[in-house]
Design brief:
The protein is an alpha/beta fold. It has a domain of 234 residues: Rossmann fold. The protein has twelve helices and twelve strands. The strands form three sheets. A seven-stranded parallel sheet has the order 3-2-1-4-5-6-10, with helices on both faces. Strands 7-9-11 form a three-stranded mixed sheet. Strand 5, helix 6 and strand 6 form a beta-alpha-beta unit. The protein starts with a strand and ends in a 16-residue tail after the last helix. Bound molecules: nicotinamide-adenine-dinucleotide. Nicotinamide-adenine-dinucleotide binds next to helix 1, strand 2, helix 4, strand 5 and strand 7.
Length: 352
């Protein structure tokens, strides 16, 4: 089996993917990661004959081109991105730079490398784009996004991911590059940077700080465990057809205020001597995020039928295990405060 280039492999999802893949004895990976504030180098093993780590930017075409030929890459799994919606409200151009331009650079280097391979190698090659349900915009209380749903992004983050997806689709149509798009719902699990809902709530609950919930907390997300998605991504490049998009949702919808209550109850159970229990008393409703999407949900039927992929249905147990992980990794959580003090981001001031 050839070598895989994993961009963003020191991030939350990329790191989980690297750890999962290295569980297979014949996997050989090269991680390319800029090591932004969101990365955890410690979340993936030290370099070995099966794992090379390169700190660098996906926008750097010569670096990407060099890695493709130096490591004789057979597959690119592309996770690297700026990922936090609130930060995209404060600095949208940074999101265009990494998510749109970075993806275009990767694709362009990939098609140059791929077009010079022989027929067998070209057929085997895959470029896997990891995307988000947010590219489709928001849903009302009914229905699910299906494959082929129109793109209607509403945040700068979602717009930048949509732009990247369009480049991926264009490279398949124009050059025949064998691409696959995996579009996922909200993820949870270990090593997620505590600007995202579940680790933020957990960290603040442990420390007795307010748990900010945007608006009235009625926004609904579909939660998927990160390991389920890693399994799905591997199935997508193993069994999936080039040019296709696979939607992978967790199937377990939950309003943000219910997620907050579940996190609080788990912290109460796991840390019974906390002085500020019950943690639900820390829940604080704050002004809503501008353009906050009401609901997302994905129809994962074609991933089930074509790839044999299904999410697990044990959200409550896995949420508690995730909360336990953050409690057991207090040192890691403390380390993230070097980059982010958990203040509210993404509230644009109106100028003039
Ligand atoms: N987390 C989710 O709920 C979720 C859901 C659906 C899709 N996704 C997608 O999955 C991917 C990974 O998300 P995540 O939650 O792990 O993000 P993350 O923010 O935890 O990690 C992103 C990683 O990318 C790296 N990176 C950022 N800019 C880079 C650049 N210019 N060059 C090289 N590396 C760079 C960072 O250092 C970091 O390690 C993203 O593309 C995201 O859009 C995430």
């Amino acid at each position: 089996m050839g070598t895989e280039l994993v961009t963003g492999g020191a991030g939350f999802l990329g790191g989980a993917y690297v750890r999962n893949r290295l569980g297979e004895p014949d996997a050989k990976l090269v991680v390319l990661d800029k090591l932004t504030y969101a990365a955890s180098r410690d979340a993936i093993p030290a370099e070995s004959d099966r794992l090379a780590f390169v700190q660098g930017d996906i926008v750097d075409a010569s670096l990407v081109g060099d890695l493709l030929s130096r490591f004789d890459i057979e597959r690119i799994v592309h996770f690297a991105a700026e990922t936090h919606v609130d930060r995209s409200i404060d600095d949208p151009v940074a999101f265009a730079a990494t998510n749109v331009l970075g993806t275009a650079v990767l694709l362009d280097q990939a098609r140059r490398w791929w077009s010079g391979r022989d027929r067998t190698r070209r057929d085997r090659f895959r470029f896997v784009q990891v995307s988000t349900d947010e590219v489709f915009g928001q849903l009302g209380s009914e229905g699910r996004f299906r494959v082929g749903a129109p793109y209607a992004p509403r945040s700068p983050y979602a717009a930048s991911k949509a732009g990247a997806d369009h480049f991926v689709r264009a490279f398949h149509a124009t050059y025949g590059l064998p691409t696959i798009v995996v579009t996922a719902s909200n993820l949870f699990g270990p090593y997620q940077f505590p600007e995202k809902l579940i680790p933020l709530l957990t960290a603040n609950a442990i420390e007795g700080r307010p748990l900010p919930i945007y608006g009235d907390g009625s926004h609904v997300r579909e939660w998927l465990h990160v390991d389920d998605l890693c399994r799905g991504i591997t199935l997508a490049w193993r069994r999936g057809e080039a040019g296709r998009t696979y939607l992978m949702g967790g199937g377990q919808e939950c309003a943000n205020r219910r997620v907050a209550e579940a996190v609080c109850d788990a912290v109460d159970r796991l840390l019974p001597s906390l002085p500020h229990r019950p943690c639900r008393s820390l829940i604080t409703y704050v002004p809503d995020r501008p353009g906050h999407d009401a609901r997302y949900a994905l129809d994962h039927e074609s991933a089930r039928r074509e790839l044999g992929w299904c999410p697990s249905d044990d959200f409550a147990e896995r949420l508690e295990a995730t909360v336990r992980w953050y409690i057991d990794h207090a040192e890691w959580l403390r380390g993230t405060t070097r980059h982010y003090d958990r203040r509210r981001l993404g509230q644009p001031r109106h100028e003039g």
